Amino acid sequence: MHVQEWLDTVPAAAVYAVVGLVIGLESLGIPLPGEIILVSAALLSSQHGGVDPLVLGVCASAGAVIGDSVGYAIGRKGGRPLLARLGRRFPRHFSDGHIATAERSFQKWGMWAVFFGRFVALLRIFAGPLAGVLRMPYWKFLIANVLGGIVWAGGTTAVIYYVGVVAESWLKRFSWLGLVLAVAIGVTSMLVLKRKAKRAQPLATAE
Description:
Low-confidence stretches: 174-183
């Protein structure tokens, strides 16, 4: 079943909980489709009156910030041996190459890597744990984490919600336009046939 179709079958409270939980676990360092879940839920909120986009954005932001903070704490405590264990468990996501790329980003951009990493799938998984492993000062991490989480989660929710509303409105207008056009074609066809029938009637009488 498609993600959006599945979300449509559960209560609104469950949608908020699922979005917050999945994004939180992804931010913590577990490879999960947080962005797909968020986009699907935001699109659902534009078509489903029971799902409030504001509450959805708050839950997604909270999941992102809390998940990253927990990931930071785990990374700070576990250090590089933790990255090695994650590499063995999730080689596709925590390979040496991926870790090296993320580490270079952190060394170059510092706390901005945490902020902008929220918008990149690979760094979104690494940001919290890697910031902890690299001993980034927590106050820097927290500022970037909160701002990045709110801008990414809240911004994504708002953009997808309004795109969904506009698309649905456009489709409704298009359907009405199609109906009006169909009626106009039908009426025109009927008038043309009537005129042809009137013209044909005297000819038939003359014959």
